[in-house]
Structures are given as structure tokens and as C-alpha cells.
Amino acid sequence: MEIERKFLIELDNLPFDKEDYPCRLIEQGYLCTDPVVRVRRDNDSYYLTYKSQGLMVREEYNLPLTESAYHHLREKIDGRLITKKRYVIPLEDGLNLELDIFEGDLAPLVLGEVEFPDRKSADAFLPPEWFGEDVTFSSLYHNSVLSRM
Q1: Which pLDDT belongs to residue 100?
Q2: Domain extents for the chain?
């Protein structure tokens, strides 16, 4: 189960230097968007992911792929291949912000996702002042939707 909230982030408002944190290079494409079936390269790791419908709470299953299987499936995606840089920033209470800086024709979009252990924690979360608009309940900011825009 994936429980996360999603926010628009402005890089100029960050109270830290993102370069102080490790960066992962991610590319992902969608074989299907209803249900969501995604292939992803995350640095040198490769996955096939299924996600159920939903906004803040969704089922998610990740299966490892070989590099060659990933490249084979990547050729079959519908829509655009999304590329982004991801920085993982520690927050209070053991939470992390996954800061995604989109590249290519989705730039200058920057999204921040915070994953939670349960729905109660997600509902109670008070974002720091430097977070932008909460877009958790807008499907427009799901990567599967961005891949088709």
C-alpha cells in the first residue's frame, strides 16, 4: 500500500541546497494508465510497477526487471517517457520528501511527495511553509497523466 501526499514545490523557496543530498536519475513510461502499469529505470535498477486507482492511498506492486527487459518494454510505452531527478530530503518524524525535478518538456515542473505509514499520519501532516500547493487530490499531477499530456 502506498500512502502519499503530493505538493508543488518552487526551487527558489527551498530552505536548503538540494545538491547537499544524493540525486537519482529516473526515467519512466506507461504501458497502460487504467490500471497503471509502469516501467522505470532508477539509476541502475529497473522495475515494472502496477498501481491501483486512487489519489492519496493506492496499492502498488514493484517487480524487478533486467536492463534488457526494461529496454524492451520501454519501446512499448504509450505517451512520453518521463525523465526527472529525484532528491530524498529528510523531514521531521522520520518522514522524507522525494523532490522530483522534471526534465524535458515537463520542465520546470517540480513536485514533492511525502510517503506515510498510515492514512491517519497522512491526514495529520502539516507541510512546512516552503511547500507549495497540495495537489494530492488532483489526478493532473499523477505521472501517468503527465505522460499523456
Answers
A1: 98
A2: 2-146
Given this model, what pLDDT does residue 1 score? Answer: 86
Cell of 104: 524535458
Q: Answer whether 49's CB lies under 8 Å from 38's CB.
A: yes
Residue partners of 70: CB distance under 8 A and separation at least 6: 39, 41, 46, 47
DSSP 100: E
Topology, domain 2-146: Hypothetical Protein Pfu-838710-001 (2.40.320)
Catalytic site residue from 21, 30, 46, 70: 30
Cell output for 142: 499523477
pLDDT confidence of residue 149: 82
Whole-angstrom Cα Rg for the chain: 15
88, 43 Cβ separation under 8 angstroms? no
Query: The C-alpha cell of 66 is what?
Result: 533486467
Active site residue 61: no
